[in-house]
Design goal:
About 30% of the residues lie in helices and about 25% in strands. By secondary structure, the protein is an alpha/beta fold. The chain has two domains: about 350 residues, TIM Barrel; about 120 residues, putative beta-Galactosidase from caulobacter crescentus (Chondroitinase Ac, Chain A, domain 3, Sandwich), CATH 2.60.220. The strands form six sheets. The chain has a nine-stranded parallel beta sheet with strand order 14-16-5-6-8-11-12-13-15. A six-stranded antiparallel beta sheet has the order 17-20-21-26-23-24, with helices on one face. Helix 13 links the parallel strand 12 and strand 13. Helix 14 packs parallel to helix 15 and helix 15 runs parallel beside helix 16. It is globular. The protein binds (2R,3S,4R,5S)-2-(hydroxymethyl)piperidine-3,4,5-triol.
């Protein structure tokens, strides 16, 4: 690899951190994913980490000058992690000539501001198309073929079927990861990598190029058939049904195994994207194995469980194809812009052991509830609204992250062991029961409260509650717009009541109590009222 501009000296070599094998001695300290009960945690510097993140606009981090005023704003808005794009065109403007000086500056500035970074590899595809590929790739359309519409018209979208495309991308990505290791292998400012961005066929369901049509007419690869047979009982139900409908065949062409039609075209494309991106991710991991994920655009996906063509996108419906084709990819991540389906998509993307990582979502007042819900209910490892460049310090996401920063140690301790949950519900939703620790909590939308001067504000965002059972009879609770009634399932003492209810905050990890609540604030002891995103400590008892 030749360097075009500034060559960063490898500090690790100078300090003697590279062992004889060429591996860093402290491999276990590289940010990685680790199971904890039913949860998967992101471990950074040996400790579990909640990424209270946000994603910058696509091209902000291509200019250090542009970024300058943004860094302090990100800190004031309480982000601890920022997702930044890395453009293939910027790092490899000529084939084999790499220039990482902007990336180095971004990493250094993030480090100066005590922010962690997730790099978004805008390589072969960004929102289906190939606008971030270097000129030398775009111009050489014979060497780097495009996908095609029917009739042979090319799309400005590199074909997944081309080995030349895949290898060029994999070489660039490997160079990027090699550089990140050199520049950051000790400090771990960079904690995860998104490989490509919102991939999937643009406007059509499958690549209609001759290469793609030939592969579709050929046999389903043995690795995929093996995977399906080994995971037959745990496949995503809607996808399993497609295979079942066609007789659970264990070999044959794509159309013989999955049937003829657009569903199979989508299955075929999911496999091809997974194979390509898995290979790119693998080349990067061979250099520096940070956790890697791909993100999914969800437009067009049905809200109800039914199988539709995925265009190759990493939708939950085709999760099995991604797992089989791209095992180098650690997480499939939903970009959830549709607030009405937020909870549903969180559930769908935690099937088959997939950890919840939300790299893009909308902002606005509802973002507080979404963030609390994702971390509290689904043990999310990262939550990131999109377009956070100039987020104000009094914005809803800053409020959410202020709360979550206080609660992070407790959330991380209670992930994956049944002592934490969360509820997100609209004002007209029916009550829900959730078991948290030893008690069952009945959660309902809050009824308006009376009192002189009280004009109950109309509820504009869904109610949210996050509940953590810290000891046998103690809960920490935070949220808004909901009421909570505790109930006991112990026959000798079937009733449950609230002992002490106090508001408070965590300061440097220590609970500092505020008002003590009873009477009107707990409906005379009937239920807990979650309001104004205040944190409360509640003791609970049983009686008969
Ligand atoms: C989704 C993409 O993944 C982002 O990069 C960005 O283009 C947003 N859409 C814009 O809303």
């Amino acid at each position: 690899m030749k360097s075009l501009k500034l060559l960063t000296v490898c500090g690790l070599c100078a300090l003697g951190f590279i062992g004889a094998s060429g591996q860093t001695k402290s491999d276990a300290s590289i940010p990685h994913l680790q199971k904890k009960g039913t949860a998967t945690q992101l471990i950074v510097d040996g400790k579990p980490f909640l990424a209270l993140a946000g994603e910058l606009h696509n091209n902000s981090a291509t200019s250090l000058e542009f970024m300058k005023p943004l860094w302090p704003m990100l800190v004031e808005a309480r982000f601890n992690t920022v997702l930044v794009g890395v453009s293939w065109n910027q790092i490899e403007p000529q084939e084999g000539m790499f220039d990482f000086h902007v990336l180095d500056g971004v990493i250094q500035e993030a480090r100066n501001h005590k922010l962690r970074v997730v790099l978004l590899w805008f390589g072969s595809w960004k929102n289906s198309l190939s606008s971030y590929a270097p000129d030398w790739v775009k111009r050489d359309f014979e060497r780097f073929p495009r996908a095609q519409f029917e009739g042979g018209v090319s799309i400005e979208e590199l074909s997944t079927l081309s080995e030349a495309n895949r290898e060029a991308d994999a070489r660039a990505f490997a160079a990027l990861m090699r550089h990140v290791k050199q520049a950051d292998g000790q400090q771990h400012t960079v904690i995860m990598i998104q490989v490509e961005n919102e991939v999937g066929m643009h406007t059509i369901i499958r690549d209609q190029s001759p290469a793609a049509s030939k592969a579709l007419a050929g046999p389903v690869p043995g690795e995929l058939m093996d995977y399906l047979q080994q995971h037959k009982d745990t496949l995503i139900p809607e996808f399993r049904q497609v295979w079942a409908t066609n007789g659970f065949k264990t070999s044959g062409t794509w159309e013989e195994v999955f049937g003829k039609g657009p569903g199979t075209d989508g299955i075929f494309m999911a496999w091809n994207y997974a194979r390509y991106i898995g290979r790119v991710a693998g080349a990067g991991k061979a250099e520096y194995p940070l956790p890697m994920y791909v993100n999914a655009a969800l437009y067009g996906i049905p809200k109800t469980p039914e199988f539709v063509p995925s265009h190759g996108r990493p939708w939950d419906l085709v999760m099995d194809l991604w797992h089989a084709g791209g095992p180098q990819i650690d997480v499939l991540s939903p970009d959830i812009y549709s607030d009405g389906d937020f909870a549903g998509f969180c559930s769908r993307y935690t099937q088959s052991g997939n950890p919840l990582l939300i790299p893009e979502t909308g902002g606005g007042p509802g973002v507080i509830g979404k963030a609390l819900y994702a971390f509290g209910r689904h043990d999310a490892i990262c939550f990131a609204p999109f377009g956070i460049d100039r987020t104000a310090s009094n914005s809803p996401i800053a409020t959410a992250y202020g709360l979550l920063a206080q609660l992070s140690p407790m959330i991380l301790e209670h992930q994956g062991n049944g002592t934490m949950s969360a509820v997100l519900m609209g004002p007209n939703d029916p009550p829900q029961k959730v078991k948290v620790g030893e008690y069952t909590l009945e959660v309902a939308p809050a009824r308006p409260r009376g009192g002189a001067g009280a004009t109950p504000a109309p509820q504009t965002t869904p109610g949210v509650g996050l509940f953590i059972a810290t000891k046998l009879n103690e809960y920490f609770v935070v949220g808004n717009g909901l009421t909570v009634t505790f109930s006991s399932s112990v026959p000798e003492a079937p009733l449950a009541g609230m002992g002490t209810v106090e508001e408070g905050t965590f300061v440097n990890g220590c609970w500092v109590p505020g008002r003590l609540l009873a009477g009107d604030d707990t409906s005379q002891g009937d239920f807990l009222r979650l309001q104004n995103m205040g944190i409360m400590r509640v003791t609970v008892y049983r009686y008969r």
